[in-house]
Amino acid sequence: MNVFAARSMARMALLSAVALAVLMVAGLAAEAQPARGGHLTVAQSAEPPLLNPSATTATAATSIVHHNVLEGLVKVDRSGALTPGLAESWTVSPDATEYVFRLRRGVRFHNGQEFTSADVKAKFERARDPESGHTNQRYYTSIASIETPDPYTVIFRMSEPDAEFLYNLARPDSVIVPAGTEDTQGVHPVGTGPFRFVEWVRGSHVRLERFEDYWNQPLPYLDSVTFRFITDPNTQVAALLAGDIDAVTGAVTAEQALRVQQAGGFQVIQGPTTNTVILAMNNSRPPLDDVRVRRAITHAINREEVMIGAEFGFGTPIGSHMTPAEPYYADMTGVTPYDPDRARALLAEAGYADGLELTLSLPVSYTYALRSGEIAAGQLARVGIRVNIELVEWSTWLSRIFGQADYDLTVIGHAEPMDIGIYGNPDYYFRYDSAAVRELLAEAKRVGDEERRREVYAQIQRQLAEDAVNVWLYARPYFILSRADVDGWWDRLPMVITDVTEVHFSR
Fold first, then answer.
1. pLDDT tens for each residue of 39-87
2. 434-462 confidence digits (pLDDT tens)
3. Rounded to an integer, what distance in angstroms lies between the CA atom of residue 278 and that of residue 271?
4. Matching fold, domains 2-12+272-477 and 71-186
5. What does the DSSP assignment read for 358-379?
């Protein structure tokens, strides 16, 4: 562990220079003027089983079609904010039990059919039907009725307050397709997006072309886009450097990013994702049931050092269970900062002046978790916490740690956006039981005022940080590796998508 940490620290100077170069390149890209035309070829690691986000949870599907081919009433933009999509505006009742959407007029599906409220009604009647096979039906369980008083108005009446409904409408599961075409969307998606589906050659690629009748002109800038499936990371980078592809997206590693950054004529764009990497603690097991011990552990962790060792310096430090890629993020990194002296004092106060011993269970399937855990163990040893590392298979992690909460410490990433509600469940594997947080989560769900919801979510994040439920290490980095003359990429990932709506070649 000490050798690994030392080797990681030795990279620090190189990484600082690399990070500065990344920022300089990103700044130059932001100044480039969009040019219309051109074909973009993007490599991604996985091929999806289907191309319908309403029928599969595979992110390999959403990364291709969400925003590009298929759209919803509401969108998450590149900053993580909720913005109008197929609905040009909406109103929400103060108690979050009624949502009224005004639809855009003149919107056409790729098959030429006009988009109307009938398509919205058909979509969400199916979404809340338990027999339909629609993914993630929990997002729609509070819908009591759907009314369409005219072709451009939709009214959702809820059975209970549900202020999260608006955000759920921005998820890939909520894309709108022509009524009656749901069963064919998996192999031939038809939507209203800036690109229309052209072909899917299994084992090879998916090809999209500009939709000339897209409602938001002059977008898109590109003529066409091909998503090529290249599994091996080394092959991806080799193809990019050779000019066979224009970009690599998806599950890009920090090692790939460094390799591309060191080559001329290319750029590395990186930012936060919704993947929250945590050093999880079993809040019900002594001595971790003592908040002083949990705070001591948190004060002992140097997040920057963890990121250098685990992600070659890429990533964003966080202090609670949201990341800067999410719309209600509040920075809580200052609540329990790195302070080894404070950690030792808290341990002594809790009765562990001579230290204590814990077991850290790490899933062998995830390199970032292994690296983060090894470095964290070394940091804890410096304040008197002896850590025994236990390596476990993923199936064991799921059954024993996640399923039975049989562990002291573990490291894992939570990738689903807006999943802070897990802290309201005392049976969740953290075993965190807080009536105050449960009440705040309930308030966040029932309050319709957006500013008040933001305040409530900030309160929740602060309470979690003060209770030191877990050590929130960092938001995993999102990477785009591309030719230097390709601009318009997102610099954060609030949803697992590769939005190429505004991507263009600079001239």
1. 999 999 889 999 999 998 788 899 999 999 999 999 999 988 899 999 9
2. 999 999 999 998 887 888 999 999 999 99
3. 18
4. no
5. EEEEEETT-HHHHHHHHHHHHH
| Calpha distance 214→500 (Å, rounded) | 14
CATH of span 2-12+272-477: 3.10.105.10
φ and ψ at 417, to 5 degrees?
-70, 150
Nearest to 273 by CA among 480, 417, 461: 417
What is the C-alpha R_g of the chain?
A: 24
Assign 3-class secondary structure to 293-306: HHHHHHHCCCHHHH
Q: 309, 8 in Cβ contact below 8 A? A: yes
Q: Residue 201: phi, psi to the nearest 5?
A: -95, 105
Residues near 50 by beta carbon (within 8 Å), at least 6 away in sequence: 56, 58, 61, 186, 187
In the chain, the amino acid numbered 67 is H
Q: Distances in Å between the alpha carbon of 454 and those of 88, 163, 211, 458, 503?
A: 22, 11, 37, 6, 31
Count of CA atoms in the C-beta half-sphere (13 A) of 484: 14
Site of tokens 């220079």: 17
Identify the CA nearest to 50 among candidates 237, 224, 215, 175.
175
| Spatial contact of 75 and 83, defined as CB atoms under 8 Å apart | yes
- Is the backbone peptide bond immediately before 220 cis, with ω within 30 degrees of 0? yes
Q: Are 283 and 431 in contact (CB under 8 A)?
A: yes
Tell me the pLDDT tens digit for each residue of 472-494: 999 998 899 999 999 999 988 88
Give the amino acid at 504. Answer: H
402 is written with which tokens? Answer: 């996640």
Q: Name the token pair of 112.
A: 């030429």
For residue 77, give the 3-state DSSP assignment.
coil
Q: Where are the domains of the chain?
A: 2-12+272-477, 71-186
Omega of the bond leading into 287 within 30 degrees of 0 (cis)? yes
- Are 303 and 316 in contact, with CB atoms under 8 Å apart? no
Residue 180 CA to residue 134 CA, distance in Å, equals 14
Query: Distance (Å, rounded) from C-alpha 61 to C-alpha 49?
Result: 8
Find out whether 89 and 102 touch, Cβ atoms under 8 Å.
Answer: yes
Q: Is 54 exposed, middle or buried (0-12, 13-18, 19+ CB in 10 A)?
A: buried
**CATH number of this structure's domain 71-186:** 3.90.76.10
